[in-house]
């Protein structure tokens, strides 16, 4: 899923894009309408261990997950409120035995459903059952274009081959396919091949998303941070491919904000057009929001309706609009363009979610962080800390030696 | 998929693919097209044209119908309808009824 869709300048967002059209009718001072799409993170369980996982470092255990009936109630409530699309995500959403039932229920209540999956648990029968249940779009993550890099990043043997297989089944079933490629220093050299892979798989869309550094990715920043040369090359490759593949493959591009001058309009602005629901039922302004300590998030298990939580809860209102802003945001002419950037990043890098996102060149911390990114990218500390329920596991050393040998031409 | 790279002409019989759903949004009181990662907000004319896209009617028949309804020159209508449908097709939100192999 791409929260930056309507705002990303490098994306050829159509002028008729509903997100832009519907959003532009509102001012920040008005009551916020319910989002068009909601992300349902139905589980944090996942067979992959990607070091940049967007889940919080403190994962929700299986035992805390909402039950089938609780999710069904949530889906019904969302549809009633005017939510139009539901993204089933995780963790790995198909790790839930009831995923077909949940998709069917989404269809029954009139929600357009999208599956954001690692694909490795899917069989052809399961995918077919999901299609029959009304699934409208499949988004498969890829970690590279070939197994050596891809399976290492995923921390799972045979994952890449399996993903290719499921991607082909997806198209056989005539479901639209998005290839989601998360990019970082150790796979950016594969980008041209990843673009070609998406074309060969007959994908409709490709998301080239540079890693965003909070949670697991922040733990792994030294191993993932691209060099500025890589970023310049990436932008060139993406722009060329967007022009060449117009009408064949739509490419959405998310730039890494450490090397930007202006921060991203994260989530379209806190509490303005997005919320997600965590496996345990917390209603969150973004999937990383739980990394901000000191904010209380309401649950769908509380006595409050989802509509009430969206409009009234402390966590949503804390950083909504522009009233909370300190300088340099407060008097900045771009304050309603980017809404001060990303709250989670501000918290992770400055210790206060109420500060200007250091990705902004006007932040007093910007220069320092930019230099740090450059240093980390140049240091070639390539070992990953794999994502898991144990709080992370450091990649074994022998693989590191192999890579060192390769770099040295051995 | 058949939905991409189609060239819309007067003989095309377009329809929405199953992943593009035209729906009236009761909450916002507007017509929308639900598509992967996007919600499009078609204008009134587009909604009218899309409701005619059933995979049976040809673009030519659609133009006839609209020309009568709006008492407008058929040629201009045809040009506008083709341009609009081609734009949707390029974005992957329009497909064609498969030609019957006779």
From TrEMBL, chain A:
UniProt key word Acyltransferase: no
GO molecular function: 4 iron, 4 sulfur cluster binding; cyclase activity; iron ion binding; oxidoreductase activity; S-adenosyl-L-methionine binding
EC id: 1.21.98.4
CDD domains: Radical_SAM (cd01335), SPASM_PqqE (cd21119)
Cofactor annotation remark: Binds 1 [4Fe-4S] cluster. The cluster is coordinated with 3 cysteines and an exchangeable S-adenosyl-L-methionine.
Domain annotation Radical SAM core: ranges: 32-244
UniProt-listed GO biological process terms: molybdopterin cofactor biosynthetic process; pyrroloquinoline quinone biosynthetic process
Required co-factors: [4Fe-4S] cluster
Keyword S-adenosyl-L-methionine among record annotations: yes
Top-rank lineage group of the source organism: Bacteria
InterPro entries (UniProt xref): 4Fe4S-binding_SPASM_dom, Aldolase_TIM, Elp3/MiaA/NifB-like_rSAM, MoaA_NifB_PqqE_Fe-S-bd_CS, PQQ_synth_PqqE_bac, PqqE-like, Radical_SAM_PqqE_MftC-like, rSAM
Residue sites binding [4Fe-4S] cluster per the record: 46, 50, 53
Function recorded in the entry: Catalyzes the cross-linking of a glutamate residue and a tyrosine residue in the PqqA protein as part of the biosynthesis of pyrroloquinoline quinone (PQQ).
Subunit structure: Interacts with PqqD. The interaction is necessary for activity of PqqE.
Record's protein name: PqqA peptide cyclase
UniProtKB/TrEMBL annotation, chain B:
Pfam families cross-referenced by the UniProt entry: PqqD (PF05402)
Gene Ontology biological-process entries: pyrroloquinoline quinone biosynthetic process
Function field: Functions as a PqqA binding protein and presents PqqA to PqqE, in the pyrroloquinoline quinone (PQQ) biosynthetic pathway.
Keyword flag ATP-binding: no
NCBIfam families, A to Z: PQQ_PqqD (TIGR03859)
Gene that produces this protein: pqqD
Protein species of origin: Bradyrhizobium macuxiense
Protein name as annotated: PqqA binding protein
A molecular-function term among this protein's GO annotations: quinone binding
Stated family: Belongs to the PqqD family.
Domain of life from the UniProt record: Bacteria
The UniProt record lists the keyword tRNA processing: no
Quaternary structure note: Monomer. Interacts with PqqE.
UniProt entry keywords in alphabetical sequence: PQQ biosynthesis
Transmembrane regions listed in the UniProt entry: none
Metabolic or biological pathway: Cofactor biosynthesis; pyrroloquinoline quinone biosynthesis
InterPro entries: PQQD (IPR008792), PqqD_bac (IPR022479), PqqD_sf (IPR041881)
């Amino acid at each position: 899923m791409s929260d930056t869709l309507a705002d990303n300048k490098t994306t050829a967002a159509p002028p008729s894009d509903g997100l832009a059209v519907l959003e532009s009718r509102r001012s920040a001072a008005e009551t916020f309408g319910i989002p068009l799409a909601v992300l349902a993170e139905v589980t944090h369980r996942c067979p992959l261990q990607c070091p940049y996982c967007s889940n919080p470092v403190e994962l929700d255990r299986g035992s805390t997950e909402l039950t089938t009936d609780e999710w069904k109630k949530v889906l019904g409530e969302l549809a009633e409120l005017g939510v139009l699309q539901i993204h089933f995500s995780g963790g790995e959403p198909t790790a839930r035995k009831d995923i077909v039932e949940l998709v069917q229920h989404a269809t029954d209540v009139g929600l357009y459903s999208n599956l954001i999956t690692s694909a490795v648990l899917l069989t052809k029968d399961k995918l077919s059952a999901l299609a029959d249940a009304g699934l409208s779009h499949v988004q498969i993550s890829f970690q590279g274009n070939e197994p050596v890099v891809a399976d290492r990043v995923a921390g799972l043997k045979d994952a890449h081959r399996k993903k290719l297989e499921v991607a082909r089944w997806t198209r056989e079933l005539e479901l639209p396919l998005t290839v989601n490629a998360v990019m970082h220093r150790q796979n950016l050299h594969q980008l041209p091949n990843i673009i070609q892979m998406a074309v060969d798989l007959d994908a409709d869309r490709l998301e080239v998303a540079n890693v965003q550094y909070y949670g697991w990715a922040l733990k792994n920043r030294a191993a993932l941070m691209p060099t500025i040369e890589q970023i310049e090359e990436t932008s060139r490759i993406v722009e060329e491919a967007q022009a060449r593949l117009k009408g064949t493959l739509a490419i959405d591009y998310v730039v890494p904000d450490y090397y930007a001058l202006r921060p991203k309009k994260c989530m379209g602005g806190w509490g303005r057009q997005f919320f997600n629901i965590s496996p345990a039922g917390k209603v969150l302004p973004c999937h990383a929001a739980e990394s901000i300590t000191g904010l209380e998030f309401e649950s769908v298990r509380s006595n409050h309706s989802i509509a009430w939580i969206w409009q009234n809860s402390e966590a949503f209102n804390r950083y909504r609009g522009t009233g909370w802003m300190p300088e340099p945001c407060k008097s900045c002419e771009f304050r309603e363009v980017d809404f001060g950037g990303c709250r989670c990043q501000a918290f992770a890098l400055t210790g206060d979610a109420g500060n200007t996102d250091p990705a902004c060149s006007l932040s007093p911390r910007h220069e320092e962080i930019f230099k740090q990114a450059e240093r980390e990218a140049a240091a070639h500390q390539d070992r990953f800390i794999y994502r898991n329920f144990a709080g992370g596991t450091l990649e074994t050393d022998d693989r590191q030696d192999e890579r060192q040998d390769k770099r040295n031409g051995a | 998929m058949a939905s991409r790279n189609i060239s819309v002409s007067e003989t095309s019989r377009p329809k929405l693919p199953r992943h593009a759903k035209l729906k009236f949004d009761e909450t916002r009181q507007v017509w929308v097209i639900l598509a992967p990662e996007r919600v499009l907000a078609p204008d009134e004319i587009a909604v009218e044209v899309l409701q005619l896209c059933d995979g049976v009617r040809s673009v030519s028949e659609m133009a006839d119908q609209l020309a009568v309804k709006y008492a407008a020159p058929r040629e201009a209508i045809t040009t506008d309808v083709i341009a609009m449908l081609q734009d949707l097709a390029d974005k992957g939100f329009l497909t064609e009824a498969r030609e019957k192999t006779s």
